[in-house]
Design goal:
Oligomer: single chain
Order of helices and strands: HHHHHHHHHHHHHHHHHHH
Number of strands: 0
Shape: globular
Protein name: Glycosyltransferase RgtA/B/C/D-like domain-containing protein
Organism: Prevotella micans F0438
Keywords: Membrane, Transmembrane, Transmembrane helix
Low-confidence stretches: none
Radius of gyration: 25 Å
């Protein structure tokens, strides 16, 4: 590790140990799916979507790297497919050389780099900006990646660990600026915004929050807010609309036409069958009778469709219109907080292990052991205590504003609430970051006890979640 550019002396051993752990987990996931995913031919999307099942993570990155397309939702991930284009070029070259699809290795390398540097950034935030010791910083950084759906995000071919890296980079850069009294420049804000919002649009708002906390009143000056916030936001929105119209709108229109043609063909077939078997001779009466039969048939079909997991677990949105159809007003917030937001996000449930709510998992699953609830309560209490101790620190305030945004989106409006744990990497860093503010307030035995407790919690989470992940992959 001593030869790796940017890795400091005190970071080498913790980072080396973390790198080994990540390589092991990456190898286990790749090996599990390699026999099927290594084929250089066939329908890539069908192969990956049908074959990859770890919680609700989507293997769309494998699809994009294998055969480039804007497979991601362009409204939520406007630049992600374009960020992946160089990976696609690399993978196609490797496919020509080796005869196999190397998407797993190419994407795995990116996930590994993002994970390692997210670990390093978390380490630096704790040690350099908050004042913990090297051991404490390493423990809290390891705790972040021992959380269930951060551990998974680091090895699953989705975008979440990329977002984690971008958000921790933002917090680290912002923290240094606040400590040194240096304002965030417009170009820096734009660069962070395009990187973060390009990966996941809602996280772009966090860059604006970070700039607000760093710059204070200067944020509202027109010479900053116009080039740093307003113009990039408008530009990205316009790009998203262009991307939708160019790559998505036609396929949506074609899909609607196909669905209507299928329904029409079914209706025509049933009408012929009805006319051949009915004893009603009068044309108008026969037509009226078939209309009643068809309506009852369609209602039955729609009810059966509504019972499918992807619909039954989706909840009732505010509206079926674009963007608002992602909301959910009916899923229980209290149960979600206990079992998913602070539950499945941090500790996997053994029942319905790593199931997908769109396939085979209920939205709410309870733990079999009270020990899991004790660990959950300890994590929440320590986080709340640390957040209170660091409440006057602008770095802590910035991180809490990030968390508040996710709470607003997921728990208030219900965006993705039925599988809210999938978004853990977008906010879970706030928990160890909050805990870090406890440690500098302590000395002597109290600090040793707190350090030991944090290490024990980290070890428990790593063993519990790691064991269940391996059990799931090779059951």
């Amino acid at each position: 590790m001593s030869s790796v550019p940017g890795i400091r002396r005190e970071e080498r051993w913790p980072t080396a140990a973390f790198l080994v752990w990540q390589i092991i987990l990456q190898a286990l996931v790749i090996a599990r799916y390699f026999p099927v995913f290594s084929s250089a031919e066939g329908n890539y999307r069908k192969t990956f979507i049908d074959g990859f099942h770890i919680s609700g993570f989507d293997p769309l990155t494998y699809c994009v790297v294998s055969s480039w397309a804007t497979a991601f939702d362009v409204n939520r991930h406007p630049l992600l497919a374009f960020f992946c284009y160089p990976l696609y070029v690399l993978n196609r070259a490797l496919m020509e050389l080796t005869g196999i699809n190397c998407a797993q290795f190419v994407v795995g390398a990116v996930l590994l780099v993002c994970s390692v540097w997210a670990f390093v950034l978390m380490f630096r935030i704790c040690k350099e900006l908050i004042g913990t010791s090297t051991f404490e910083a390493a423990t809290l950084s390891a705790m972040l990646f021992s959380f269930a759906h951060v551990m998974l995000a680091a090895v699953c071919p989705d975008h979440f660990v990329m977002s984690l890296f971008a958000l921790l980079l933002t917090l680290y850069v912002s923290g240094k600026m606040m400590r040194n009294g240096v304002p965030m420049r417009a170009w820096q804000t734009v660069a962070l915004f395009l990187l973060t919002a390009g990966i996941s649009l809602n996280n772009g708002l966090k860059i604006i929050l970070a700039a607000l906390f760093v710059n204070g009143k200067r944020f509202f000056r027109l010479k900053f807010i116009l080039p740093a916030v307003i113009l990039p936001a408008i530009g990205l929105a316009l790009f998203g609309e262009w991307e939708h119209e160019t790559f998505v709108a036609e396929s949506v229109r074609v899909a609607k036409i196909k669905r209507s043609l299928v329904v029409r063909a079914e209706r025509d077939s049933l009408r012929k069958m009805f006319n051949d078997t009915t004893s009603i001779a009068n044309d108008s009466a026969r037509t009226a009778a078939f209309t009643r039969f068809w309506r009852a048939h369609r209602q039955k079909q729609l009810k059966l469709r509504a019972m499918q997991p992807d619909r039954a677990n989706a909840g009732e949105p505010i509206s079926r219109k674009r963007f608002l159809n992602w909301t959910d007003m009916t899923t229980s917030r209290t149960e979600t907080l206990k079992e998913n937001f602070f539950g499945e996000s941090l500790q996997l449930h053994r029942r319905y292990l790593l199931g997908d709510v769109m396939r085979n998992r209920p939205v709410i699953v309870c733990y079999d052991s009270v020990l899991n609830y004790i660990v959950e309560a300890l994590l929440v209490m320590l986080f709340v205590l640390g957040a209170w101790m660091g409440r006057r620190n602008r770095l802590m305030q910035t991180a809490l504003s990030f968390l508040a945004l996710d709470v607003l989106l997921h728990l208030v409006f219900g965006f993705g609430i039925n599988e809210v744990y999938i978004m853990t990497a977008h906010w879970a860093y706030v928990i160890p970051l909050g805990m870090a503010f406890i440690l500098p307030r302590l000395a002597g035995w109290p600090r040793i006890v707190m350090r030991t407790l944090l290490a024990a919690l980290t070890l428990w989470l790593a063993i519990w979640n790691g064991t269940l992940l391996i059990e799931y992959l090779y059951q």
